[in-house]
Amino acid sequence: MSDMPDSGQSLTELRHQIDVLDAQIHDALIARARAEAGVYAARQAAGESVSPFYPDRDADVMRHLIERHSGDLPLVTVEQIWRGIVGGCTNTLTDYAVHLDGSAELTDMLDLARFYFGFSVELVPASDAADVVGAVTASPHDLGIVALTDRADLPWWRGLSDAGALVSARLPFVVMDDRPADLPALVLSKSPGLAETADVSVFDARWSDILPGKLMDQGIEVLSFFRSAAGVDAMIAVSGDLTEEDVQRACALAGAAPEVLRRIGGYAAPIDGDGASDEFGPEDEGS
């Protein structure tokens, strides 16, 4: 049941109440921006590297927001407002750009980038996913968004490494029916510590033969793959609790251990916005 206003209040009284709430929200936004600047200054004073994107913190805040949300205001509206606030604050503190994968529809990529990072950040279209990897690797703070497709035109994830760009988030983070900005994508950033602590680990795996057919049975999701005469390259996702040795064994049980296996990032497990939060689970392999 929705929270209805007191029917005894006049229109003037209700409008005044809204004005008071708007002023309180504005004051809170100003206070939040000051606190954000304080966090930024504290990190600099401690000698920590400063980033425009902290995916683990982002995920925690979104989980708490969803847990306490109630009423008729759509959850996706609350998410968009919150991300706009964070993006606006971040852009005043850190000079960065977001590079967009040119292999996807530009309008879809723009919608996704603006939803997650706001309208004030610079958006830079790239020719393809490999160019996004290169741009993020070459910059101290820039981010990248790469469209996630079952079959890739090239194994662009080979360019990811601890010394450069890594997978740091999967979009959309809050999954719900008929949501805007729902293009499946990965966010790339320089977040080497996240790979060891994320809910889901991402690996570059390569086989000289075909892709093992029972990866999904072993809890392995194939995010994307590329076939060539030399074999198959795959970007796979597994539970963050698994070690590299665990993943090798799981692949072997699925049909064949990969000749190459290296961690290339990780991300927070997506949240089911239409129900309870989901644990990590495999999806269609796309093989």
TrEMBL record:
E.C. code: 5.4.99.5
Q: Which domain of life is it from?
A: Bacteria
Q: Where is the Chorismate mutase domain?
A: 15-96
Q: Which Pfam families match?
A: CM_2
> What name does the UniProt record give this protein?
chorismate mutase
The protein's organism comes out as Roseibium denhamense
